[in-house]
Amino acid sequence: xxxxxxxxxxxxxxxxxxxxxxxxxxxxxxxxxxxxxxxxxxxxxxxxxxxxxxxxxxxxxxxxxxxxxxxxxxxxxxxxxxxxxxxxxxxxxxxxxxxxxxxxxxxxxxxxxxxxxxxxxxxxxxxxxxxxxxxxxxxxxxxxxxxxxxxxxxxxxxxxxxxxxxxxxxxxxxxxxxxxxxxxxxxxxxxxxxxxxxxxxxxxxxxxxxxxxxxxxxxxxxxxxxxxxxxx
Length: 232
Fold this sequence. Notes:
Blueprint: E1 5-6, E2 9-10, E3 13-20, H1 21-31, E4 36-37, E5 46-55, H2 60-66, E6 71-80, E7 87-95, E8 98-106, H3 108-115, H4 128-140, E9 143-157, E10 162-172, E11 187-188, E12 193-200, H5 206-211, H6 224-229
Antiparallel strand pairs: 1-2, 3-12, 4-9, 5-6, 5-9, 6-7, 7-8, 9-10, 10-11, 10-12
């Protein structure tokens, strides 16, 4: 079990597939009979996610993702349903085949400081993740680069702590990092693409494996950030 921990965080397996809207429709109709919908979702079972991703001039984060580095880190600031009052700084780490996620709250004012290059205050902040980001920003010159919007639909299966998500309607700001601007111009990427993600702890129950079969679909290395950067 200790081998699955990183800085006290339990690692999870995360599989991604790029599927079509028809695939999504078929899967949704199967999963809804066995899995429960995310209780935090709206009436239609979906919620909106907006994230700004950090990278540097050399596209370090994007390149490591594309080339499938076994050890890599990615920072982002995220909000849900455009609620500007509740933001989280998140760090996703990949170690071999496991994914680790750490997060902490961050205020809108703090994000704006980061966006404008005012980062000296982060060095001695009480939140370890803020200090971690400060180090990474100094070492690799990463900064907020691109805003990505999408709709997420979540199905949950408690045995194995399984989450199946469908991310669709992915939009990008190109290279605009104005996360908190409700009128930020967003451009649609590929309207036909849905990203299926399957996340679980130590095992995935056979019933979920069976339900998720879609012919010869193969595991991919897709991410919303990668998809968005294909368009600018």
